[in-house]
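From the thread on structure requests for the teaching lab: each student submitted one protein with a one-line request. Submission from student K.M.:

"Model fructokinase from Linum trigynum, tokens only."
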Amino acid sequence: MASSAVPNGGSDSSSLIVSFGEMLIDFVPTVSGVSLAEAPGFLKAPGGAPANVAIAVARLGGKAAFVGKLGDDEFGHMLAGILKENGVIGDGINFDKGARTALAFVTLKADGDREFMFYRNPSADMLLQPEELNLELIRSAKVFHYGSISLIVEPCRSAHLKAMQEAKDAGALLSYDPNLRLPLWPSAEEAREQILSIWDKAEIIKVSDVELEFLTGSDKIDDASALSLWHDNLKLLLVTLGEKGCRYYTKGFHGSVEAFHVKAVDTTGAGDSFVGALLTKIVDDQSVLEDEARLREVLKFANACGAITTTKKGAIPALPAEADALSLINSSSQ
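Reply posted by the TA:
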């Protein structure tokens, strides 16, 4: 595929990345390393992996849209406003008059890792219906990105499957980050089954080391374990390893890229930042996926974006601009 004249997304109408799924508010304790019960107070942090990816793309100069449903409440309108402020196209957002915007209370452990308690019974994002989809927007995507939380219940599951099919039929590259949140699923078995039910549709899949263990049932994080998830439609399989960087697998080659070492405060959104960076760099020229040297440079950039995101609390405030990532890369290579 020929490279577009517009570098890195820009305003070229052909280079749209559409992100589908949930957006919610994380309530993050004002103090790290305490339980929810012990937390003296909470800060509102907008989140939801697909929304984070959309904002990550926009912040890096790409063209991003979000498709999903929010509550017709103050929090829902606040979230829609945050997307807009960050330059994300909001033509795919619906509001539900009967259900609230989803909330999650997040425990930040001393090492910056997290535990979640969700308020979704049901929340607006779960109630997106297939007929509410903005098909014109979805069909104009060059890349269509999604997670698995939107597969948990109907009608959102049907909306997800329809959106995915419409995007694929219109020629989009499908990108999947399962983003496992076990407390939201009826059981671990159901989570595994549903996450894998759409596995062979995606051309780019990113899993974390924890998700790799969960999906394979193996406690080994090695090439054999990762390649057991390979399928013929895949162009790129990524396994993110936190401070150990990432591993990549394509039809023709595989390898690993080291992480950047930073002081992690909150790992929320690091994976979304990584995905947003990757998608922004390949949306105009997918031949990168077949060129190992160029792909390694893209993954180095994505690792830098992920690392920077861990240095501040909350996902969206911490998502970097391109200059931030280049600065980290340059300072690490000296």
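TA comment: Residues 152 and 185 are 7 Å apart (CA to CA). Residues 292-309 form the longest helix (18 residues).
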